[in-house]
Design brief:
Layout: H1 2-6, E1 14-19, E2 22-26, H2 32-47, E3 63-65, H3 76-93, E4 98-100, E5 106-107
Parallel strand pairs: 3-4
Antiparallel strand pairs: 1-2, 4-5
């Protein structure tokens, strides 16, 4: 999965596994619409994965997103915590959804 996700970000972005099945994608200088587009791409990449042990097995992505940077006076730890809460809201709302860490909105594919 991590090799597939490495193909998704732009050249200045960072992707990191933060534990278990959770990954963090840090998007450099992305606007909220750009970030939303990349979240959509990530969910498509994850859902397209097939596994050698069972090609009928499928996975989906629940994504939490938040924006931070110089114009948004938020520490990185706070941004990650917001994104984590948004991800759990997305998970409880159904498969393949994503949530915004600055609101209670959950978006379906």
């Amino acid at each position: 999965m991590s090799s597939a996700l490495r193909e998704t970000p732009r050249s200045d972005d960072i992707i990191a596994r933060i534990g278990g099945d959770e990954f963090a994608l840090v998007l450099a200088d992305a606007s909220e619409p750009e970030a939303a587009d990349l979240v959509g791409l990530v969910t498509e990449v994850v859902e397209a994965q097939r596994f050698a042990f069972d090609s009928s097995a499928s996975v989906s992505a629940s994504v939490g997103m938040t924006c931070f940077g110089p114009r948004r006076l938020v520490r990185a730890e706070t941004a990650l915590a917001r994104a984590d809460r948004a991800m759990y809201r997305a998970k409880t709302s159904g498969r393949g959804r994503w949530g915004d860490g600055t609101s209670t909105t959950v978006t379906a594919p």
